[in-house]
Amino acid sequence: MFISRIVKLLGMTAVSSALISTAGFAGADAIIKIDGSSTMYPITEAVAKNFQATQKNAIKVTVGVSGTGGGFMKFCRGQIDIVNASRPIQGKEMKVCNKADVEYVELPVAFDAITVAVNPKNDWAKTMTVAELKKIWSPAAQGKITRWSQVNPAWPDEAFKLYGAGANSGTFDYFTQAIVGKARSIRGDFTASEDDNVLVQGVASDKNALGFFGFGYYIENQEKVRAVAIDDGRGEGIVPSVETVEDGTYRPLSRPIFIYVNMKKAEKPEVKEFVTFYIKNASALVRGAQYFPLPPRAYRADTEFFKTKRLGTVFDGFLPVGITIDDLLQREARFYEN
What we know:
CATH class of the largest domain: Alpha Beta
Number of strands: 13
CATH topology of the largest domain: D-Maltodextrin-Binding Protein, domain 2
Order of helices and strands: HEHEHEHEEEHHEHEHEHEEHEHEHH
Strand content: 15-25%
Helix content: 25-40%
Mean pLDDT: 92
C-alpha cells in the first residue's frame, strides 16, 4: 500500500502553495473527478493530497481506480475531468470522445517499468527471456504449459500460479503486446485484477506464483516479492531500475504513463489550477511514489501543451513497444511541429 508514502509526501511541495489561489473556486462545492489506471494512482493520489493541503481542503479531489480502459469510458462520456492512463488513448476511445465532443490534451507525466515478479522463495527464475514469458502467457499455453519445468527444464517440476493485470488495465494491453506480440492476447487461466495490490498479495502468498504489475508496487513490497531480470534476446537479464529505464536498456517493459485532461472541464478554475500544480510538482512526487520522472524539458512541454491547448495524441491509438524517454520527446516534437 502507498498510504504511508503518500502521507509523507504531503510536506514535499509546500513551496508551491504560494502558486495556488482559492480565488474563483466554488468553495466546498469544487470537486475534481479523476479515475483510471491503478499504476498511475499512487502518483495522482499524492498530487491530489498535496494540492488539497495547499487549498486547506477547499477543493475536493477524488481519485478512483477502474483501470485505464474503465477510466477512458468515463472520461469520454464526460463523467470525469481527468483520466489516469498507463497507455495512450486507443482508436475506439478516440471515436467515443469525438462523438461526445470531448476534446483533450495528452500529458505524459512519468515512465513506469512493468515488473515481472516471483515469490522470494523462488530461487530458480532469476532471469527470464521474453520467449520464456511468451511461452507462459500465450493463449496456446492455457491448460498446457502449467509447470516451471515446461518453461525451462532446469527449473522445478512444480505447477506455477499466475497473476496479472485485468482486461480494463493499460498494463494488460501493453504487457500482452510486448510479450505475446498481440495486444489483449493472453491465456485465460490466471488471476486478474485492475488493482495491483491484489496481484502483489497473490505473488507474496505462493512460492510458485508469477505475476506482473507496476514498478512502484514492487518497490513498496520488496520484502514480499522479487523482481525477475528480463532478457529481451540480447543474452543479458536486466532488472528494472532508474538507470535501466532512463538509458532504455530495460526492454521491452518500460513505458510512458499519462494524464488526459478534458479541455472543456479545464475551463473550471479548480481543474486548471490542479493540472498546473500537477505538472509543476510532478518530478518530486513521481520520484516519491517510486516511479521515473521525465526530464525537465518534458514537463516544460506539458506546461506549454496545456496552456496552448495542444489537443489530441501523438500515438494514433497505439503505443510502440520499447519506446524510450528520448523517443517520446522526439515524437511529441514532430507531432506539434506539424
